[in-house]
Amino acid sequence: MKKLIKFFPILIIAALSIWLFQRTQLLDQPANEWADFINSPIHELPISDQDAMTASEEAPIQMLIFSDFECPACSDLALMSKQWLQRFDGKINLIFKHYPLSSACNPEMEYDMHPNACAAAKASQAALRQGKFWELHDLFFDQSFTAEDFPLLAAEAGLDLDQFLKDLSDPAIEEKVQLDIELANELKIMGTPSIFINGRQVDNPYPEKIEAIIEQLLVPGV
Hints:
Layout: H1 2-38, E1 52-53, E2 61-67, H2 72-87, E3 92-98, H3 117-128, H4 133-142, H5 150-156, H6 161-168, H7 171-186, E4 194-197, E5 200-202, H8 207-217
Parallel strand pairs: 2-3
Antiparallel strand pairs: 1-3, 2-4, 4-5
């Protein structure tokens, strides 16, 4: 018992030291994440009029997202993105690129994780031709679907159905999806969603981290 009493203060000091260290790490986390982001390499990310965008390429925040319409995390990010677009009105240009997690169109996939993702990517590009990409984007993320649902969803999105089906069969639509996949694979994208802000990739892109980066980039002089 005397030995235990003798070492008890040492145990308390050790436990307190560990707690203080962990607390310091938590407090320093935002600063460390910002440093990791701002010191990461800037990638050249080609953008064209075939990419769905929410604003101008002149907006101070260019947020490019590689996404998959059957990815639950991508659906969550889509909801958060709407909030950011409202909060930072006009300051964010959200750019959508495709990375379907399906072996049907993505050579890096060993199996068909999301069997409808490739077809949905092409359908959204067909919708873009009628200026309805984001309407179909929201419908895809709001529910489960198969390719058989496309005509109904296209009508709900306000698309001309005949034109939509015609565009869906255009080889240029599939070429665009393939270009996105090739770019993602060149960048060694590991999954979806993968996010680049002003050319820099955001590792472990949880919402609070993304929002903190946006806020920091909008500070004058940064």
